[in-house]
Amino acid sequence: xxxxxxxxxxxxxxxxxxxxxxxxxxxxxxxxxxxxxxxxxxxxxxxxxxxxxxxxxxxxxxxxxxxxxxxxxxxxxxxxxxxxxxxxxxxxxxxxxxxxxxxxxxxxxxxxxxxxxxxxxxxxxxxxxxxxxxxxxxxxxxxxxxxxxxxxxxxxxxxxxxxxxxxxxxxxxxxxxxxxxxxxxxxxxxxxxxxxxxxxxxxxxxxxxxxxxxxxxxxxxxx
Length: 223
Hints:
This protein has about 220 residues and is an alpha+beta fold. The chain has helices at about 10-15, 35-40, 75-80, 125-130, 145-150, 180-190, and strands at about 25-30, 35, 40-50, 55-65, 65, 70-75, 85-95, 95-110, 115-125, 135-140, 160-165, 175, 195-200, 220. The chain has two domains: about 10-125, Thrombin, subunit H; about 130-220. Helix content is about 20%, strand content about 35%. A hairpin with a 2-residue loop joins strand 1 (about 25-30) and strand 2.
């Protein structure tokens, strides 16, 4: 499905493709490999949150990795999901899955309720941009869109930027005094009559930029 805003799909085709939506399937990929399969992990719960305005996140719980004799969780699992690790989430049914999220491990916690579980929280590139800290930089570019590309280049491991090109002919460097997210959304997209949005989504969720109207319609991050 190339564009969720305009495309249509047959329910019968989807029902056949996903096995009547009976048996859920998921993959958690680290460096391209599905660790659920390779490490025989049991994912007791998973929740993926996507938003057009807020940072996206995914939270999943891993059961069956607590070692009673050591009174600790499996070290290989904790090491696999150490802070900063990039993880891709694929969801679907039977053997058909689709990537819906890509993010970094922002938190690794434990829960001792009915069963001990490891809880992994993933955040997307937009969250990383929000927490990048205040920066004081001069971007020597000719166009605002070039400044956007320059900023997003730091997040290439998490996402693939899609930026509407502009022809501004700037004569002075563009000054940045905020974090990367505010710089793009408040200083590059919003001012001077430019209208648009800033999106971040997994492939298949927002696969095409839904903005093509203003002189600078915005930018997108596709994972």
